[in-house]
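Researcher: Next sequence.
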Amino acid sequence: MMKKKWWHGKTAYQIYPKSFMDADGDGIGDLKGITGKLDYLKELGIGIVWISPVYQSPFVDQGYDISDYYAIDPSFGSMDDMECLLKEAKKRGIAIVMDLVVNHCSDQHAWFQAALKDPFGKYGKYFYIKEGKNGKPPCNWRSYFGGSVWEKLPGYDNLFYLHMFAREQPDLNWENPEVRQEIYRMIRWWLDKGIAGFRLDAIINIKKDLRFADLPADRDDGMCSPAAMLAQADGIHAFLQEMKQEAFAPYEAFTIGELFDFREEELERYIGEDGCFESIFDFAPHMLGASGRGWYDRTPVSLDEFRDAVFESKAVSQRIGMMANIIENHDEPRGVSRYLPECGRDETGKKLLAGISLMSFGLPFLYQGQEIGMTNKHFQSIREVDDINTLDEYKVALEHGFGEEEALQIISGMSRDNARTPMQWSSGIHAGFSSGAPWLAENENYGEINVEEQEGRADSVLSFYKELIALRTDPEYAMTVVYGLQEPFGRDMADFTGFYRKGTKHTLLVLANCRAKEREVEVLHTVRRVVLNNYVEPADCVRIRPFEGGSRVVMKGWQFLTLEV
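Model: Next structure:
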């Protein structure tokens, strides 16, 4: 059994502050709004809260372009507000985790402004500034947001700076030890303030292929994806271990990495006993259906594919460390709209998806609104879209011959703005998020899907999430739910997800009938009790028929069960 950590039995929750709760009525969520909802989070059962960036920023990429790491952006409040949040969270036993965005900064940061004035001086070496090829970019790498990773340095005909994301987000040069020490100093400053740790944004990108060579093109634009470059880059573990030893380890900080493009054989170096991080997000299901050509070429994802991705991930990871299980986050569409077929997007189906995720081995990581089953927004026009990545994918779809209506439909299913609409607290004005007009329009279904309506209802999605979360601290089942190994059950069955969680004291069997029709499942064990069920009616809800050496469980359509066997 793995070495126990303080966070293993917790449930974590991501807050996108701009859209969570607005305390002052200006239409933008803020720190006081978060503080005012701490009791809600505690009642839900949350022990860790990750807050997306609240640092000073021009918001080209919604705060992931940081202009001052030591300042709170006035739109979110003040440093006093941050300190009050930390104090109040501590009273409730909630650990606060902040975003650590150190692959890049904003082009408004003092370091980059100094580099613009003297690209060959001290601060020019804080970034990747290279000579081009006769006025053209140094190499053919494509940025995550489309177009070249290289942008001309203003005032110079043949000097370019590198940006893996937007051109307003120049990449920091991690090869420069001065840059690394600046970053470690900032990390320690925040940990001294009392935060519990960091979520490390896009951290795999800090190590580049320093040859800066052209790679085979994978689109008609003649460029290659960032993943192609990262596959050629070696040496990131040295950077990550140095950061751990100099900044995180002295504080026993909780760290969770955002890693997409890592090599499976290196997983132990990331989350093993001596790994770089405490945990990383399990993005296996989120990679399904993707295409290097763009969103227009994506394929739909079934729940069986979701199941298989989870099983394959756990087979590799669960004896090494605890990855974080997510259905959605601020960079993804709403999970119930992405993974559930239309016939399964009612509350019963939403509970089923929740059960599969939270009963799997790993740290459950909820995203705001997930606990009430918030869905994708229906965009009427591209003018309603704010997200820079979505706008680029809309352009890509148009360039590949799709009409405006078709392109809008393509981006609507995957847009990051789906997760960034205001949190739906009530059926009141602006979903109870703000008394003023929100920065991004609320989802039109907030009258039917909101916290206030679900809080008082025993059969709500919110109530079911509370039941799932409570199992992680239940004296009887916590050890099995937190540490029990996950083994597939009935993997050859279509429209079905089943797995064991095997602990030293109990064995739990999770069954999910992912279709609208009733089915019978043969279980080679005696069922001792029903631990969890997404149907609340006791009569004719769970039918367990004995047979020699086991049981037959008759399940309704879209039924989720956790049985003790």
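Model: The radius of gyration is 24 Å. The first strand starts at residue 12 and ends at 15.
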